[in-house]
Amino acid sequence: MMKNKPHCQIAKKLYDAFLAGDIEGIYALLDPDIVWELVGVKEVPHFGVYRGIDEVKGFFKIISEINQVTGFEILQYTETEKGAYVECREQGHFEGHPKEFDLRSCQILEIKNGRITHFTIYQDTAQMLDAWRS
């Protein structure tokens, strides 16, 4: 399926590591100067821009404390010249907040020399904000 799609192969390794809870496996795929961005309002604590591995580690600490994922599914990988687009579906809620979210997102990976240099997530931020405020 992804034999001639090297960027999709790297993206798949990232999501396989994420789904397995292999955080070190995720870090191994990132460029040391990674820019990791979740586009959205600052009220939701994990939205924002994280620069470098140490800040990305801070991101994962935040989501491990607040984000209760009950379902995560990869819908599609798309190879691009600079990386890959990954369409996902995620369900869950925030710790201490009863309202659930069920949303789709587009996650864009820029890849250079086999390492992820920029990772951006676009998702239904209104739904996330609503769940956070519940």
Automatic annotation (TrEMBL):
Domain SnoaL-like: 12-118
Domain of life according to the entry: Bacteria
InterPro entries: NTF2-like_dom_sf, SnoaL-like
Pfam families for the chain: SnoaL_2
Gene3D superfamilies given in the database record: 3.10.450.50
SUPFAM superfamilies, per the entry: NTF2-like
Listed PANTHER family: BLR2505 PROTEIN
Protein name: Nuclear transport factor 2 family protein
Organism: Shewanella surugensis
Lineage: Bacteria, Pseudomonadati, Pseudomonadota, Gammaproteobacteria, Alteromonadales
